[in-house]
Structures are given as structure tokens and as C-alpha cells.
Specification:
The chain has about 350 residues and is mainly alpha-helical. The protein has one domain. It has helices at about 1-70, 75-125, 125-135, 140-150, 160-175, 175-185, 190-230, 235-245, 250-265, 270-295, 305-325, 325-350. Helix 6 (about 175-185) crosses helix 7 (about 190-230) and helix 7 (about 190-230) packs antiparallel against helix 10. The longest helix is centred in the N-terminal third of the chain and has 70 residues, at about 1-70. The chain is globular. The mean pLDDT is about 75. Pfam families: AI-2E_transport. It is a multi-pass membrane protein.
């Protein structure tokens, strides 16, 4: 009887130990998954910074190509002029426009409380405005600011990210073949030609996107500066510059940039606000639907709904940097899918 009693108790202890071991294994697996997800998120932000550095490098090389075509100088001299000239142009622009822009920013910051107060009084006169004001109550506004703060958070802070992106761009600019050849060497011998084709196609698409985006930003800045100055809107230069920079964010950037301009115009009169809103919409329409498509012919055609979904997804994952780089990243994904999947299916059907 005694041995029989000991055997069930030993089996029970073994079952308890097995159960505890399973629990700890489960906890270890969950912890490992959490760590992997956190690392993947940080790694994804780093990849976005690499993409931003690549885009700046593409700009430098595109500018250098243009100089070389017109002058027939050596590649090294053209690239030095491209990089150095770009920084000199930025410095000159900030030198000539910096004082005026800083003065207008000071005026805007001083007049902003009165502008918001006047806009609230105007909005309170309509039922729809009352609903909007109710949504922008203290609790909702605090939640909105918290969301915006989280949206603008980055991996290393804004200045840290800019520092890393700038140095990556310089490294990619000085020796692009080193990184291109390194990627191709990682591929099997049978896929090296396909890898070169994909990289060249991605480079062409990014150049098209960059050309269209830069021209769009400059045109939006010029057109809005003229239109807002004609309407005697205060701080027209700052508003136009703000709108040009937000052109980096398709769809949502244009809407966000229009809000401060319309609010300032609303302090003058309702009719002025309507006219200013029309100036914003006409400018954005001309640039987005006429000028930009002519420049971005070489870029892959992206469905608008897919672009918006990519922006929302990237904004959720990586904040403002993800939204800015959503379109070029989507273009890269579309090219990879087309080259690695769609064309193989079409070849198989043709055979």
C-alpha cells in the first residue's frame, strides 16, 4: 500500500512541475514577442531614416547630373558644386528672408490668441460651428494635443533624426556604388540582373517623385505668397512657406495648411475668409493635378485610396516621418511587387 501511495504523489509533483514549466515557457515566448515587436518598430524607424537619407542623396545626384550635362565637367566637381551649392543656396535664402520670416512669426504668435478668439465667436453664430466648438472642449483639446505630441515624437528626437539623416545622405552621396553593389552581392547569381533592374527603376521613381515634390513646394509658395499678399493677409510669407513645407504630406498637408490662413482671414471678414479658402484650393488644384503629374511621369502610378491608407498606416507606426515618406515607400513596394510577382505571373500566363 505504501509504494502505491507514493507513486500517485510523485506523478502529481511531476504534473505540477510540467505545468509550471509550461507557464514559464509561455511567459518567455510572450516576452520574446514583445521584445521583437519593439525592436522591429525601432528598426522600422531607422529604415525610414535610411530612406530619407537616400532621397536627399538622390537630390544631390540629380542636381549634379544637371550640372554635368550643362557644363561637361568631371563628376567629382559637379557633385561638390551640387552639395556645396545646395547648402549655400539655403544659407542665402535664410539670410535674406530670415529677418522678415522671424518678424512675421512673431506677429503671428502675438495675434494668434485674438485670431482664435475671433474665430470662436464667428463659429458660435452657426449650429455647425457650435458642434465643432463642443468637440474642441477642454477634454477633447487635451486629448488632441496629446495625440499631436505623440505624432511628432521620433526615435532620437527631431534634431537627432535630422543629424542622422543628413550624415546618411552625405555617405550615400559620396559613394553610392558601394551600397548599391553591396546589395547586389547579397543576391544569388541568377537574380543579380533583376536586382540591378529593380534598383534602377526605384531610383528613377524616387527622382520623379522628388522633382515633382520640390517644384510643387516652390510653386505653392510663390502662388500663395502672391494671392495672400493681394488680399492683405498678415504674415503671408510665413503662411505660404508653411503650406509649401506641408506639401510633403499629400492630401492631409494641404488641408492642415489652409486652417491658419482661413482663421486669419476670418478676423478681417467672412468674405475674405471665403476668398482665401478659394485661393488655397485653386493653388493646390493647379499644382497637384496639373503641374505635379507632368513632372512625375516616370514615377509609378499610385491609386489615391492606397496612398491615403499608406499615410494613415505609416502615421500610426512612425509619426510625421512615416507620413512624409509614405508615398515614396509605397512606390518602392509597388515596384517590388510588380517586378518580383506580377511580371512572373504574366510571363507564366504567356508561356
Amino acid at each position: 500500500m505504501t509504494p502505491n501511495n507514493k507513486q500517485p504523489s510523485e506523478n502529481g509533483k511531476q504534473q505540477d512541475l510540467t505545468y509550471i514549466q509550461k507557464v514559464w515557457n509561455t511567459v518567455a515566448i510572450v516576452a520574446l514577442l514583445v521584445v521583437v515587436i519593439l525592436i522591429a518598430r525601432v528598426a522600422f524607424n531607422v529604415l525610414l531614416m535610411v530612406l530619407a537619407g537616400v532621397l536627399i542623396s538622390v537630390y544631390f545626384h540629380g542636381f549634379g547630373d544637371m550640372i554635368q550635362r550643362r557644363t561637361k565637367w568631371s563628376r567629382r566637381i559637379c557633385m561638390l558644386i551640387s552639395v556645396g551649392g545646395s547648402f549655400i543656396i539655403l544659407a542665402v535664402l535664410f539670410w535674406f528672408m530670415g529677418t522678415k520670416i522671424s518678424n512675421q512669426i512673431a506677429v503671428l504668435s502675438d495675434s494668434l490668441p485674438n485670431t482664435v478668439r475671433t474665430a470662436k465667436l464667428k463659429m458660435a453664430e452657426t449650429p455647425l460651428g457650435n458642434k465643432v466648438l463642443g468637440y474642441l472642449s477642454d477634454d477633447n483639446s487635451d486629448q488632441l494635443f496629446a495625440t499631436a505630441k505623440q505624432f511628432f515624437n521620433t526615435s532620437f528626437g527631431v534634431l537627432g533624426d535630422l543629424y542622422i539623416i543628413l550624415f546618411l545622405a552625405i555617405f550615400f552621396t559620396t559613394s553610392p556604388n558601394l551600397y548599391k553593389d553591396g546589395i547586389i552581392k547579397l543576391m544569388p547569381a541568377s537574380k543579380k540582373e533583376l536586382g540591378k533592374c529593380v534598383i534602377d527603376r526605384i531610383s528613377l521613381a524616387l527622382k520623379g517623385w522628388l522633382k515633382g515634390m520640390m517644384l510643387s513646394m516652390v510653386l505653392v509658395f510663390i502662388l500663395l505668397t502672391i494671392g495672400l499678399s493681394i488680399m492683405n493677409i498678415p504674415v503671408a510669407l510665413v503662411l505660404a512657406l508653411f503650406t509649401g513645407l506641408l506639401k510633403l504630406i499629400p492630401n492631409f498637408g494641404s488641408l492642415a495648411a489652409m486652417i491658419p490662413g482661413v482663421l486669419l482671414a476670418l478676423t478681417i471678414s467672412t468674405n475674405t475668409a471665403i476668398i482665401v479658402a478659394l485661393i488655397y484650393m485653386v493653388t493646390q488644384t493647379i499644382v497637384s493635378y496639373i503641374v505635379t503629374p507632368l513632372i512625375q511621369k516616370r514615377m509609378i502610378d499610385l491609386p489615391p485610396a492606397l496612398t491615403i491608407l499608406a499615410q494613415v498606416l505609416m502615421g500610426t507606426l512612425s509619426g510625421v516621418l512615416g507620413v512624409v515618406l509614405a508615398v515614396p515607400l509605397l512606390a518602392i513596394v509597388m515596384i517590388l511587387v510588380d517586378e518580383l510577382y506580377v511580371k512572373k505571373i504574366d510571363q507564366g500566363l504567356s508561356e
